[in-house]
Fold these 3 entries.
Entry 1:
Amino acid sequence: MSELDETLREFLIEGHESLGQIEQLMLSMENDATRADAVSGCFRLLHSIKGACGFLGLRHLEELSHAAESLLASIRSGEITAGTSHINWLLQAVDGLKKLLALIETDGSDNAGAATVSQILANRSSYSQQAEPVKAPSTVPMRITAEIAHIHPNPPSGTSIKHDDIPAGASMLAEATVRIGVEVIDRLMALASELVLARNRIMQASDQIEDAGYQAATRQLNLVTSELQEVVMRTRMQPIANVWSKLPRMVRDLSRQIGKQCRLDLEGGETELDKTLLEAIKAPLTHLARNSVDHGIELPSIRMGLGKPAEGKIVLRASHEAGQVTIEMSDDGRGIDTDRIRAKVLSQRLATSDDLARLSDSQIMQYVFMPGFSTADRVTEISGRGVGMDVVKNSIESLGGSIDLSSTLGTGAVVRLRLPLTLAIIKALIVSAGNSAVALPQAGIVELMRLEGERRTRALTHVGDAVYLRFRSELLPLIDLAKTMGIPCSQESDTDAFSVVVVHAENRQFALRVNKILDSQEIVVKPLPSLLKGIPAYSGITLLGDGAIALIVDPVGVARLAGLQGRRNQAIRDDSKTPELTKNTRPLLLVETTRNRMQAIPLESVDRLEVFPVNRLEHTDDTPVVQYRGGILPLYDTSGHPGCPFDAERWTSGTVSVVVHQTPHGLKGLVVARIVDTVIESVEETGGITIIRGSVTQIVVPETWLAGVPQ
C-alpha cells in the first residue's frame, strides 16, 4: 500500500470502532439525559472523525459528522435538552456514517453517499419541534433550524429515514482486524520464547538419537517454531515513524527560538522496530535533533556567507541492514571542529598533548560522548552543560546497540545508530570461558579463529604489559574473557590452544580470548537477577539447550571492565605484519583439498565451517547430502571439476570438514581435507592461481564454481 492507502485503511478501522462506541454512548444518553460524560465522549469521537475527514478529503463524511457534532455541542452546552427525537436523528447519522465508511472502503471515496447525506441532514429539522428548551433565548431553536434550512431549504413533507433504509455498511477491514492489548502480545512473546528454549533442548538431544522418524519430527518442530517466533515478533513491530513524527515540529520551533532557519526531512519511516525499542529511543533521537539545530546548523547570515542556503537541512533516515536497524541523522551545518575538541580536552585535563597527538580525528570525536564534556562557550537553556551525548550513548548501548559519529568540518556531521530488531530473542555464539559457558551476541562479531602451536606464537605480541593479536594489518587488544569476568578456570600452560572472537563495538575492534567455540543458536534474553545487575559486562541470562543457565556477555562492558583506555582503546597499526589493504587485497580461507592441494576461498563467501561424521551422510541421486539446520545440505568436492559432487565412498576418514556457502537457492557444502588458516592476499576477484606461503594455491570463488549446479 502507498502511504495514503495505509492512512486511509487505519482511518476506516478506527472509524468503525469509534462509531460503535458512539452508538453505545447515545443509548446511554437516551436512558439518562444528564450523563455529561456520554455527551462529551460522543462529541470527542465525532470530532476526531471530522478532523481526519478534512485531511483525507472526504467532504460528505465531514459534512455529516460536522452536523452531528453541532447538535451534540448544543446539547453539551445546555442550549437544548436531548430528547428521543434527537437521539433518533443522531443514531440515523451514525448509520449514515457507517454507510459512507463502507462506500469509501469499496470505492476509495465518499462521492456516492451525497444523496444519503442530504436526506439525513434534511430530516434533522424534525427534532426542532420536539426540542425541550432550557433557560435560553427563544431564538436558539430557530438558529439551529436556519442552519438546517440553508443545507436543504425545502425538505419534502413526510420525509423520514427508517433504520432499515440505511445499511450499516459492514466493513471487511473491521471484521479482518482485531485490536489486542499490549499485555496479551507480551504474554504471547513470552510463550514463544519458552517454546524456542524447548526447541533448542530437543534439537540438541536429537543429535544422539538416530531414529529417522524422530529426526523428521524434530525438523518439523524447528521450522514451525521459527515461523511462529517470527510471526509473534512481527506483532510487536511498529513503524519508526510513530516515534519521530513529532520531531519536525520541535525542530521548527527550536530553530525559530534561536534565530535559525532549519527543516527536518524524514526518510524510511516505514522501517519497523520492536515497540520496546521504539519507546526507548524517543529521548535519544530528540536530543540528537536538538544538538543538530543548536550546534550544527549555522545562522542564516553565516550560511549565506559560506555559499549555503539560508535554511539548514537535517535528514533523519532509517533502514534495515544486516539484521539490524540503522538510524542516521545528518545535517549540512558547520561540522565538528576537532581542534576545538582537543583544546577542551587539554583544558579539562582529560588527556595529555602527547596522547592527543597519537589519535586520529575520528578518535578525538569520541570525547564528545564523555560525561560532562561540552564544546559550548556558555551554558544556555538548550545546551552547554555537558549532559546529553553521554546519556544518549549509554541509552543506545543498554539496548544492545551502538553509536557512531563522523564529521567533515564545514560540511556537516552524521550520527549513526545501530539497534537490534528486538530484545527478546537474538542470535548468539555460545563459547566456553574458564569452566563456564557464556553467550556472545552475534551482531558485533567479526571473525572467529583457533590459535595453537606455531600459529599462536605468530599471532600474539606483547606491548608493555598488554597482549595484542595480529589481525589483518592491525594489532588488536586481546582480552582474556575468563580472567576479566572473574570466571574460575583450570591452570593452563603457555602451549595450550585457545579460540579468539574478534568483536567490533563502539567504532573499534578488539579480541576476546575464550577456551572454545561451542555453538551458534537463537537464545531467549531474560533479565539479570538483582545480584548481578551491578556488573556492566553482563546484559542478561538465557537457558541453553542442555538446560544449563548461561550469562549473556556485553562485549562493550567487558572492554570497559578490562580497562581499555587511551592507546589501548584502539587497534595499533602493525607495520611489520601485513601491508595496508589495497583494492585487490582480500581475506581468504586457506584449505587443503581432498587431493592434498592448496586452495583459498574468499572469506566473505564462507557462511560457516562444520565437521560431520561420515555416518551422517546420505545420498540423493549422485550427490551426497547431510541433514543440516532443519534442511538438506548437498556436498561438493572443490578438488574436482566445477560442481563436482563429493565422493563419500572413497573417503577413509571418520569425519568430513565442510565449508558452508550461502547461495540464493540455499546452503551448499564444500568438502575439504582440513582448514589451514586465514590469510590476506592480493588476488583477482574471478579466481585464478597464486602463490601463498610458498605453495601454488588455487583461488576458488564458490559463486562461480557452483554456477552449474542444479537449483
Entry 2:
Amino acid sequence: MSRTPDITDVSAPSLHRGLRLFWFFSSAVLLTGAVSMLFADLLWRTGWSASRTVLLVLFIILFLLTAIGCIHGVYGFFIRIFGTNRRITGLKPFKSQNIAGVSTAIIFPIYNEDSVRVLEGLRATYESLERTGQLDRFDFFILSDSTNPDRWVEEEKNWCELVRDLDALGKIFYRRRLFNEERKSGNVRDFLNTWGKRYRYFVCCDADSVMRGETLVDLVKLMEVHPTVGLIQTVPALVNAESLFGRIQQFANRLYAPVFISGLNYWALDFGNYWGHNAIIRTEPFMQYCDLPQLPGRKPFGGQILSHDFVEAALMLRENWAVWLAYDLEGSYEEAPQALIDNAQRERRWCQGNLQHSLVLFAKGLRGVSRMHLILGIFGYVASPLWLAFMLTFNWIYWYQKYTGLSDLPVESFNPYLKSWSGTAHALLIFVICMVVIMLPKFLALIDLAHDWPRRKQFGGLLNAIGGVLGETIFSTLHAPLLMLWHTRFVLTNIAGISVGWTTQNRDADGTSWLYAAKRHWGHTLIGLAWGWFTWKLDPGLFWWFTPVLAGMVFSVPLSVLTSRRNLGARAKAVGLFLTPEEICPPPEIVSLRSHMAIHDLTEAEYETNRCRPHAGLAAAVLDPYVNAIHVSLLREKQLNPVYAEHFTRIGAGTDAARELGEKLLAGGPEKLKSSERMTVLADQRVMVWLHQQAWVRPEEKLAPWWRAMIREFSQREN
C-alpha cells in the first residue's frame, strides 16, 4: 500500500495557490463583466425583451469562455518574459539525480493502427534513449487491442523484425489482448495488473508518439526528486504534418501553445491535468486509486468513461498525489489528423468523453481545481451550440423587429460616456473589444517570439511567422463555423442517446476526395446558402456582417479538399509559411523516424498491395513458416499465463469448435468465416500449427480456390 503523501512537499502554500486562482479567474470575470455591461447597455437602448435576455445570457457565457482563453495568453506571456520558479523543473535541482535501480515501462497502447508507423516511432525513442546511456532503466511494451486479424499478424511480424534489428530481445515486448474491454483505459489496466509491480513508473505514449531519450530520463529524475508527485504531463509538439491543414495546426501548436500552457500552469501548479499520453505516471498510486468506475445510466453518458485521462488526474489529486505540467521540457512529439474531416472524427470521440464528465463533476472528494478542468473541457464543446443559439437568437430579434412593424423606442445609454454615441458606434465598440480579446494571445505569442532571437529563427524569421499567423487566422475564421456545426451535432446526438464507435484515427495525408467531401459537407453548404439568403433578404448590411461565418459553410467542400492536399502544404513550406522548429532544425528522433519511414515508402507500392489484399495477414500466418512460428510462439507463451486461461475459453480457442472452424477455413476460404471466427482460429496455437501443415500437404482439390491462389503467389515470391 502506498502512503497518502503530503502534497505540500512540492506545492505552494494554500493561500498562495488560492491567490493565483483568485487573480486569474477574477481577471476573466472582471473583463466579462465590463464588456457584458456594454452589451446590456446596447440591448437596453433598443428596447428590452425576453429574447434580449436570452441573448445577454448567451453573450456572458460565451465571452467568459473567450476571456478565460485570453487571460491564459496574457498571464502566460508575462511568465515567459519575466520567468517563474513555480514549475516542476524549477522547484529542485534534478539533473544530477541518480536513477540507478529505477525501472520504467514505456507503453504504446494501439488499436488497429499502422504498425509500421508505431514501431518506427518506438525505434526512434529507443535509439534516443540508448544514446543517453540509460537504456537499461527502461522497457518498452506494445499493448495491442487490434480486432483486425490482418493487423494482428502484421503487428507481430513487424515487432519481431524490430527486436531483431535493434538486438532488443527482452527490452521490447508485444502483447495483444484477447478481449478489448474498456478500450484504452482497460488496455493500460490489463498491463498494470500483469506487469505493473515490476516498474516504479510508466510512460504512456500514443500510437504516433515519439519522445527524446533525454526527456524521458529527465522525467524519471523529476519523479525521483519529488516523491509526492504522481504524474507529470509533457506538452507534445505536433510534427510531420504534410497537408496544408496539418501544417497550419502544427504551426499554431508550436507558436501559441507555449504562451497558453504557461498561463495554464500559473493557476494549476501542482493541480495540473493529464492528456492521456506522453506523460510519466507513478505506478503504485495509479494502480491503487485510478481504477475508473462505471458511470450510472445508459450510454452515451453512462457506462464506461471514454475520456479517462482527465478523470485519472482528478483521482490522483483526490488522494494528495501532485500532478504537474512540464511545459518547458522539450523532446515530446506527436502527430495530428491531416484533414478537416479526420479531425472532426477525432473531435466526435472527445466530445462524448468530455460530456460524460458532467456526471463526474459531482463525484465525492474531487478537488475544486479538478472540477474546473472538467468544466472547461465540457464547455470546449458545449460552447458551439451556445454560439449557434446566440446567432439564431440575434437573427430572430432582427427579423421580429423588422417584420412585426414595431418601431424602436430608443433610450439613452446608462453609461455617461456613451450617451452621445449612436447605436451603430456602440455595437462597433463591442465588436472591436471582442476581436481584441480573441486576437490578443496571438499578438502576444508573436511578441514572445520576437523577444527570443534563437527561437525566432526556428520559425523562419519574424516576418514568416507573422505571415503564418495571418494565414492561420484566415483559415481559423473559415474553419470555426464548421466546428460549430459539427460540435453542435455531436452534443445533440449525445443528448439524444447516440453513442460513438471505437474507430481507428486516419493518420494519412493522402488528401480528401471531392466526392467524399461533398458527402460530409453537403449539409454545411446547404445551411450556409439558406442562412445567407435569409440574412440578405432581411438586410444586405446584416448579410455582410455574417459573411465570415457564412463563407466557411458555403465553401466547406473546397476548403476541406484543398487544405488536405500535400502539394499545397509543400508550396506553403517552400515560401516560408507555417514553418516550425522541427522543420527548420529537426531533432535526431524526428530525423530517424522520417528516414526509416522513407525506407518503407520505397517499397510502399508492394507493401500496400500485400497489406490491402483481403486477409493477407491470415494468409501469411498460415503459409509463411517464419510468421507462423512467431504467431504460434506468442500464443504458447500467453497460454502459459493463468490470467488468460479464462479468456481463451471464452473465445473458444483450444476446443473442437476451433478445429472445425479451421477445416471450414481451408475448404471454403476466409470469406466463409466471420471476423470473430477468424480471430478464434488465430487465437488457437494448435489449430494454427495444423493449418500450416495442412495448407502445404493437402491436395489442391481439397483447398479453396483462394488458398490455391495464395500458395502459388507465395511460392513465386519465395523463388
Entry 3:
Amino acid sequence: MSSLKLLKGWLLDVYPSNLGEMTVWIIAENGERVKLVDKFQPKIYVSGRISDLSKLTTQLAVSKSLAKWRYVRKYADFMENKKTKVLEVTITDCRRISHFVRKLLKSSGCKKLRFHNVDIPYAQAYFYDRDVFPLASVGVTIQGDRLAYWLLESVESVNYALPPLRLMAMQIEIAKKKAIPNFNDPIGVITLRSNRESIVIDDAKEDEKILRTVEAIREKDPDIIFTRGGDSFLFPYLAHRALLNEILNGLILGRERIPLKAEKKCGTTFFSYGRAYFKAPMRRLRGRIHIDEKNTFIYSACGLDGLIEVSRTCRFPLHRASRASIGTIMSSLQLYQATKDDILIPWKKQEPETFKSAWELLVADRGGFIFEPRLGIHDGVAEVDFSSMYPTLMAKQNISAETVLCKCCPDSKLRVPELGYNVCEKREGIVPRTLKMILRKRAAYKRLRNEAEDAKKRQIYNHRQNALKWILVTCFGYLGYKNARFGKVDAHIAVCAFAREALLEAVRIAEERGFEIVHGIVDSLWLKKENTLPKEHVDLCRVVSKKIGVQLNVEGRYRWIVFLPSRTYVDVPVLNRYYGVFDSGEIKVRGIEAVRRDTPPFIREAQMDMIRVLAKAQDSKGFLNRIPESLEILRGYLENLKDINVDFQDLIISKRLSMNPDNYVHDVFQAIAARQLMKEGIEISGGQTVRYLITDAGNRRPSKRVKAAELINDENLFDVEKYMDMLILAGASIISQFKYTEEAIKNQLVYGEKQMVLSTIPTIT
C-alpha cells in the first residue's frame, strides 16, 4: 500500500475484506467517498495456570490461524483488582477466531483454560483497537500496510459537525396477483427518492428496471439507503427477481462490486422481560448504510440524529445500531472501556450470584419502592421526578458487578442501605465510568435544547438526548441480566436499595413541608398541598436534590388527575394507570387504551376525544359537570359505527405473537390471523406483530372470527357489535370511578340493543 498525505473526513463504514484486512470508507472533506484498506489482526487472550498455557503454545505453532503470541499482564478476572500473566494470541484474520478457538477446545489440555475477547464483533474490535468511532472526524494516513488515525474531535463532543450525508429512500411496488405479494410476482414500479428528487422506474422490462435501479443508485451514490421491509422481504425479493432474469451478478447496491445475495434467511425470535420479539435478518450493503424502517427501534424512536449519537457514543456500527437492542448497543461502550483498562472480556460468563439465605433474599430482592395511588380525582397535584435516578445512583455510588461485595474492601465505609453490602473504595467500576459520560452528554444536550432558538437545532438536540435516555434506561436492567458481561444480580439489588432510600428520604422531606403523598412509584412522586405556590415545589426539589445527590425536577402541576383501578378488581389501584391535565393544558395519559399498541385507531381517538372534553375543566367539580358532554362524544362514535361511517383501516388491531402460531392452544384472534397469513405462504414467527380485523367474534368457525389485514377486501364484514363493546369499554375505563360503568353507559347510549350488526366495508377510493 502506498503512502498517503493526511486525508481529513468522517469514518462511515468498516468491514473485513481480504485475509487480515479491513476495508474502511471515509467521507472526505471535499465530498469524495474514499475506500482505504487497513491491515488488522485482532488479539484474543487465554488465562489459566502457566503450565497449561505453556503446553498450549506448543499447539499454536502448527496453527494457520496464528500470526504470533506472547505473554502479557492483564486483568483476566475483572472481579479481582490485580493483573495476572496471560497468553496474548494474534490471529491472522478476525473471521478465523471462532474456528481457531473451537479447534483448541477439542484438545483435552484446553478445558481448564479460559478464553477472552473471543466474540467481539469485527467492526467493534476494530474501533476499540484503533480508538475511533462511526462518523468520527478523523485525519488518516497510510503507513506501510496500516492506517494511522488522528481524532479531530472527542467522542464526548456535543457540538460535532457531520458530513452532508447523501440519503435515499427506496420503494418497490409489486404487481401482485393475490392479496399478499410473493417472490413469484413481477416488479411493478421502483421509486428512488433523494434530496427532494424522485426517480420512477416503471416503463421497462423487469430486467431493465433492475439494472436502471442499480445505475441510478451508482450515479446518485447515497451514503444511506432507507427501505421499509428491506431486511425481511424487499431485498430478498429483488434478488430473486434478478436471479430469474439472469442478472443477479449485476444487482449491486453497495459501493463494492458485490451482488446482493438471493438467499432466504430466517429471522430470530427472542424473549426480553417476558415478551417475545422478532428480528429480521440484516441485509448488508458494503460501503453504504442500509436502514430498514420496519426493523429498527432507535431510528423509529429518535430519528437519524439519535441513531448517529448512540452509534458514535457507544462505538457501534451504524447499520447494526439501527437494528440492535439498546442493551446490545450500550454493552459496546462497556466493552470498549474494559479494553482501554486492560480488562479482559470473558467469553462465557462464569460469575455466579452470591449465595443468600431465604431471609436475605426477602430483604434484598424487593425492587423499587411504591406508594399505591389514591383512587379517584384529585385537584392541584404536582408531579416531581428524579432525573435518570438509577444510572445517577450507579455512577455516584460506584455500583458495578466488580465493586459490590468486592474482596479487596471488606471494611469499606461505603455500604448498601438495608443490606450492608460493601462497595469498593479502591477502584471505579466499569459501569459507573461509562455512565458518567452519558449522563454528562445528556445533560449538555438538554441544556442546548432549552437554549437553542433555532427549531431544527432544538429537534436535533432533543433526538440526541432522547437516544441517550434509552441507554440510561437500559443500563439498570442490563446490570442484572444473566448474560451481561459486566452484570451481577448483587449489583442490581444494590441499586434498588439505594433508590428505595432516596425515595423514602424525598418523602420524608416532602411530608415535613406539609405535602401529602398521593402516589409514588420508584423515581416519581405525586404531591398534594392546599393553596401551594409553584415556588414551594421548586424549593422542595432543590432541597431533595442537594440531600440525595440526584436531581429532582417538577414535571408539572395538574389542574386535576384521575387515578384508575384495575379492570378486574375495581377497588384495587393500578400503579401506572391514570390521566390528567396540567395547568398548561397539556394532557398526560398512562396505561389506558389510548396508549396501548393493540388499540384500534378509531377507539384510541374516541377515548382521547372524551378526555379532551374533560380537559377543559379547571377542577374536579368542572370535570364531573363535563362527563355528560364526554358521553355525547362517545355516542357520536357509536353512531358512526352503527352507520358504517368509519374507515376499516381505523378498526385494524395489531397484536404481537408471544409464540409461533402453531404453538397456540386456544384460538385467540392473533393466532387465527397469523395462520391465515401462513396459508398464503407468509412466514410468521413468534415476536412478529399481526394485524387483523374482527369480522364475527362469536362465530363457531375460528377462521371466520377475524381476517388478517393483508387479506381484507370489499366483501369482508366487520363485527359492529364487538367494536361497539370495545368502544364502550374504553369509555367506561376512564369514568367508571364516577358510577359510569360499562353497563350503565351501554344502557344509556345503546338502549340495551343486543342484535349483532354486520356491515360490508365500503370501497376506499
